[in-house]
């Protein structure tokens, strides 16, 4: 059994892996490394909890819940994000 140090994966990479972790698409090795990092890093553990809460809450939103201004702002943010990618 290989032991990993929490520093093996930098926090920045953990943040980038959160979506894949939550969707269950990480390899078994990456999942173990991810979870080992979480066990030694309270900041990334808190970030993961925040992402889970965000997904749980936003999963309840429907377009009618947003004001026209908020819909426009979210659309603009999405278009900017798409153009940067």
Looking at this protein, list some descriptive labels.
Arc Repressor Mutant, subunit A; 71% helix; single chain; mainly alpha; 85 residues
Write structural notes for this entry.
The protein has 85 residues and is mainly α. It has a single domain (6-84), classed as Anti-sigma factor, zinc-finger domain (Arc Repressor Mutant, subunit A), CATH 1.10.10.1320. Helices cover 71% and strands 0% of the residues. α1 (11-23) runs parallel beside α3 (42-58) and α2 (28-40) packs across α3 (42-58). The protein is elongated. The relative contact order is 0.11.
Gyration radius (Cα, Å) is 17 Å
Helix content: over 70%
Rough outline: elongated
* Count of the domains: 1
Q: How many E-type strands? A: 0
- State the major sheet: none
If you average the pLDDT, what whole number results?
85
**What is the CATH-assigned architecture?**
Orthogonal Bundle
**Total count of helical runs of at least 4 residues:** 4
Give the gist of this structure.
This protein is an all-alpha fold and 85 residues long. The protein is 71% helix and 0% strand. The protein has helices spanning 11-23, 28-40, 42-58, 68-84.
